[in-house]
C-alpha cells in the first residue's frame, strides 16, 4: 500500500498557487464559467473523467481545448457522429502488402487529453470502446494490448435538449465519469465581455503553465491532503442516506429510485481533497464536501417518476440530502 506524507500549509499554498495559474490563464479565453473551469481542473488533478452537459454555444468545447492548451500535453478532439466506428477511436490493424504483415495503427484515443465532442451522437459500440479505455486504461488491438498515455483524461460533452439522432449513455456507463458538470448561461455582464472580446476576433492565445510532471505532482499532493475520520463518516452518511433515506431520518424515499454507488464514496473523498488543495488547505472541511457533492452525485442519484411529477431533479434531491444529513 502506497504511503503519502501529509502536506504542510506552505506546500498546500504553493501547489494552490500553481493550479490557480491554470485558471487565470484559461480566463483569458473563457468568461463567466469559473465553476466549469474549476471542475475541469479538479478532474485533471484527481485523474477522473468528466461529462459536460449544456445547450449549444456555451463554450464547452472551447473550455476543454483551452485547458489542453494550458497544459503541455497531447490533445485530440474526436467529433462523435452516428457513422463512427470503434476502430476510428481505438485504432486498427493494417495489412502491409510489401512485408505481408499486419501493423497496428493507433487511434486518437492514445493521447493525454481527449475531447469526446457530443458523445451521445455515436452508437453504443463506439461509446463502449471509449468507456472501456477510460475504465481499463488500456486498449486491445489485433490481440495486442496497449496502455493508455499518462496522464489520460477524457472530457466528454453532450447536448441535453436534442434527442433525435442521439444514443443516450446508459446509467452504468455515466457512472464511470467522476463528475457531471451542468453548464448554464453566462450573466448579462459576462456576455457583454464575451461580445467585446470574441466577436469577429481570433481566440486569444494562452500560455502553457503546467506539464505532465506538474499534473503528477498535483495528484500526489491531493493524495496527501489530510481527511479526518469525522469527514469520512460524513461522506458515508451522505452516500448511505441516498440509498436508504428512511434510516437517515429523511423523507426522501419516494423520490429516489437508485442511490449513489461506491464510486461516489471514492469520488467524494478525492474531490474534496482536491477542492481543499485548490484553496490552499492541507486538510478537508465539510464545506469541501458540500461544494463537490452536486457535480459528483448528479449522475449517480436517480430520481423516481414521482419526483419528476413534482418537477424535482437529482440536484433538488442532493440539496435535500445535504440539508438533512448532520454536518460534523
Write structural notes for this entry:
By secondary structure, the protein is α/β, with parallel strands linked by helices. It has 2 domains: 17-205, P-loop containing nucleotide triphosphate hydrolases (Rossmann fold, 3-Layer(aba) Sandwich), CATH 3.40.50; 225-324, Magnesium chelatase subunit I, C-Terminal domain (Helicase, Ruva Protein, domain 3). Helix content is 45%, strand content 15%. The protein is built from 13 helices and 11 strands. The chain has helices at 9-26, 34-46, 60-70, 86-90, 124-136, 171-174, 188-198, 212-224, 229-243, 262-278, 286-297, 305-309, 314-324, and strands at residues 50-53, 75-79, 91-96, 101-106, 113-117, 138-141, 144-147, 153-158, 179-182, 256-258, 302-303. The chain has a 5-stranded parallel β-sheet. A hairpin with a 4-residue loop joins β3 and β4. α2 crosses α10 and α8 packs across α10. It is globular. The model has no long low-confidence stretch (mean pLDDT 87).
Blueprint of the fold:
Blueprint: H1 9-26, H2 34-46, E1 50-53, H3 60-70, E2 75-79, H4 86-90, E3 91-96, E4 101-106, E5 113-117, H5 124-136, E6 138-141, E7 144-147, E8 153-158, H6 171-174, E9 179-182, H7 188-198, H8 212-224, H9 229-243, E10 256-258, H10 262-278, H11 286-297, E11 302-303, H12 305-309, H13 314-324
Parallel strand pairs: 1-8, 1-9, 2-5, 5-8
Antiparallel strand pairs: 3-4, 6-7, 10-11
Helix pairs in contact: 1-2, 2-10, 8-10, 9-10, 10-11, 11-13
Number of strands: 11
Number of helices: 13
Instruction: Report low-confidence residues grouped into runs of 5 or more.
Output: none
CATH architecture identity of the largest domain: 3-Layer(aba) Sandwich
- Give the C-alpha Rg: 21 Å
CATH H level of the largest domain: which superfamily?
Answer: P-loop containing nucleotide triphosphate hydrolases
Amino acid at each position: 500500500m502506497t504511503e503519502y506524507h501529509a502536506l504542510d500549509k506552505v506546500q498546500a499554498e504553493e501547489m494552490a498557487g500553481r493550479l490557480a495559474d491554470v485558471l487565470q490563464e484559461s480566463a483569458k479565453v473563457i468568461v463567466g464559467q469559473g465553476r466549469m473551469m474549476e471542475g475541469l481542473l479538479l478532474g485533471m488533478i484527481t485523474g477522473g473523467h468528466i461529462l459536460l452537459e449544456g445547450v449549444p454555444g456555451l463554450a464547452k468545447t472551447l473550455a476543454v481545448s483551452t485547458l489542453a492548451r494550458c497544459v503541455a500535453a497531447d490533445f485530440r478532439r474526436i467529433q462523435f457522429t452516428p457513422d463512427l466506428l470503434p476502430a476510428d477511436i481505438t485504432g486498427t490493424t493494417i495489412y502491409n502488402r510489401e512485408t505481408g504483415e499486419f501493423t497496428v495503427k493507433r487511434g486518437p484515443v492514445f493521447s493525454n487529453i481527449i475531447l469526446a465532442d457530443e458523445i451521445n451522437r455515436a452508437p453504443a459500440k463506439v461509446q463502449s470502446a471509449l468507456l472501456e479505455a477510460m475504465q481499463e486504461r488500456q486498449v486491445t488491438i489485433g490481440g495486442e494490448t496497449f496502455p493508455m498515455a499518462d496522464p489520460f483524461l477524457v472530457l466528454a460533452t453532450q447536448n441535453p435538449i436534442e434527442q433525435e439522432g442521439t444514443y443516450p449513455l446508459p446509467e452504468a456507463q455515466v457512472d464511470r465519469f467522476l463528475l457531471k458538470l451542468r453548464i448554464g448561461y453566462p450573466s448579462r455582464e459576462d456576455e457583454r465581455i464575451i461580445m467585446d472580446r470574441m466577436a469577429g476576433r481570433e481566440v486569444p492565445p494562452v500560455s502553457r503553465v503546467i506539464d505532465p510532471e506538474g499534473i503528477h505532482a498535483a495528484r500526489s499532493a491531493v493524495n496527501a491532503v489530510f481527511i479526518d475520520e469525522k469527514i469520512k463518516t460524513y461522506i458515508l452518511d451522505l452516500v448511505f442516506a441516498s440509498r436508504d433515506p428512511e434510516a437517515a431520518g429523511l423523507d426522501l424515499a419516494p423520490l429516489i429510485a437508485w442511490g449513489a454507488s461506491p464510486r461516489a464514496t471514492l469520488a467524494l473523498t478525492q474531490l474534496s481533497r482536491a477542492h481543499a488543495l485548490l484553496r490552499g488547505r492541507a486538510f478537508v472541511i465539510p464545506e469541501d464536501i458540500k461544494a463537490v457533492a452536486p457535480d459528483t452525485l448528479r449522475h449517480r442519484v436517480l430520481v423516481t417518476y414521482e419526483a419528476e411529477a413534482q418537477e424535482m431533479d437529482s440536484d433538488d434531491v442532493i440539496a435535500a440530502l445535504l440539508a438533512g444529513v448532520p454536518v460534523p
